[in-house]
């Protein structure tokens, strides 16, 4: 069954989010709740690790409705979509579950009432980016999902939000979880290739704006705020201003990144292949956003601003100060604990 592409998702339609315990998924779920959307969250049956359980509890406390299931179960997904009258489905799954979205698309197509599907993109335009292996395999899978969505006739939106607003580590550290460097900068190539850096909350906020916007239907939505366009040298200078000192720079060459990628150590090699594509080949900036299926988010919502990278680095600075204060308190407590009372001998003056 083909869903008419002239229908836009209704305001305050019921939204199902898959992968809400992940980094991007959580921001999307929180933004959906902030927007007052009836928000449903799909989680796997069975016990969750403590960090994911805390996320689910937080979303539930804010009003999210928790559903249990997996997107690879077509019959169950059809049942959930119908019973809860879902209008928009947003996927933020990753890793080995990317191709499971094909089964989800089949369920959406069978139900026939879903007004918009956002597959798990939230990065580069996978039809234009071309990383070396092993990163390429992930993009080939995402391209396969795209072709399935387009063939199905289900209205879609692809969110191409580029990089997370932080220092881009290539060695498998999640940028959002690690402070920018405090010892030295690793500069990729000559450090002059630019990329766009988007705060997680903005990814969620602008994603939610697209779900009921007819202008984003069957489009690649690119996040390219000029205020957040930096090269690695610029990032280094910005962080140096925040911490008030200059750090040495170490060059990571193109050959270095390609060597790490070729070692096929998962996931480090995947991250190295993406880093090469971004900061050597310029995959975020080497094409214009002017095709019939492309739209830039800033042109759609010019009244909305992005958090600047400068503001995001202020957050890292505050986190650094908090960690330093905590460490100081630990040292102070430890010192106090090991001090033993000494006998004082009376003396005659």
TrEMBL record:
Show the CDD domains listed in the entry: PCBER_SDR_a
Q: Which residues form a coiled coil?
A: none
User: What GO terms in the biological process aspect are recorded for it?
Assistant: lignan biosynthetic process
Q: Matching InterPro entries, A to Z?
A: NAD(P)-bd_dom_sf, NmrA-like, NmrA-type/Isoflavone_red_sf, PCBER-like
Q: Which GO terms describe its molecular function?
A: oxidoreductase activity, acting on NAD(P)H, oxygen as acceptor
Q: Which Pfam families match?
A: NmrA
Provide this UniProt record's keywords sorted from A to Z.
NADP, Oxidoreductase
Q: Which residues form the NmrA-like domain?
A: 12-311
Tree of life domain: Eukaryota
Checking PANTHER family in the record gives: LEUCANTHOCYANIDIN REDUCTASE (PTHR43349:SF16), PINORESINOL REDUCTASE-RELATED (PTHR43349)
Question: What is the designated name of this protein?
Answer: NmrA-like domain-containing protein
User: Species name for this entry?
Assistant: Prunus persica
């Amino acid at each position: 069954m083909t869903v008419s592409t002239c229908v836009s998702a209704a305001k305050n339609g019921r939204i199902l989010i898959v992968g809400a315990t992940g980094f991007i998924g959580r921001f999307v779920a929180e933004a959906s709740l902030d927007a007052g959307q009836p928000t449903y969250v799909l989680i796997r049956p069975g016990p969750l690790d403590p960090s994911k359980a805390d996320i689910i509890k937080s979303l539930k406390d804010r009003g999210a409705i928790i559903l249990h299931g997996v997107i690879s179960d077509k019959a169950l997904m059809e049942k959930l979509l119908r019973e809860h009258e879902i209008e928009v489905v947003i996927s933020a799954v990753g890793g080995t579950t990317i191709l499971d979205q094909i089964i989800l698309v089949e369920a959406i197509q069978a139900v026939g009432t879903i007004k918009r599907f956002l597959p798990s993109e939230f990065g580069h335009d996978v039809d234009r980016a071309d990383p070396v292996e092993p990163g390429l395999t992930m993009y080939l899978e995402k391209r396969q999902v795209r072709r399935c969505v387009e063939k199905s006739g289900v209205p879609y939106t692809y969110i191409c939000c580029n990089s997370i607003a932080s220092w881009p580590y290539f060695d498998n550290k999640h940028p959002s979880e690690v402070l920018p460097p405090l010892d030295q900068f690793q500069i990729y190539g000559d450090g002059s290739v630019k990329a766009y850096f988007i705060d997680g909350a903005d990814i969620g906020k602008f994603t939610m704006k697209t779900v009921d916007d007819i202008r984003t239907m069957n489009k690649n939505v690119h996040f390219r705020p000029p205020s957040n366009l930096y090269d690695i040298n610029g990032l280094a200078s910005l962080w140096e201003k925040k911490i008030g000192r200059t750090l040495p720079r170490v060059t990571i060459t193109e050959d270095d990144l390609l060597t790490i990628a070729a070692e096929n150590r998962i996931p480090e090699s995947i991250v190295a292949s993406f880093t090469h594509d971004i900061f050597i080949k310029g995959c975020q900036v080497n094409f214009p956003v002017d095709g019939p299926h492309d739209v830039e988010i800033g042109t759609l919502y010019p009244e909305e601003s992005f958090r600047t990278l400068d503001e995001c680095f202020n957050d890292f600075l505050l986190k650094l100060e908090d960690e330093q204060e905590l460490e100081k308190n630990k040292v102070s407590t430890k010192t106090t604990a090991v001090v033993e009372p000494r006998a004082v001998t009376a003396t005659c003056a």
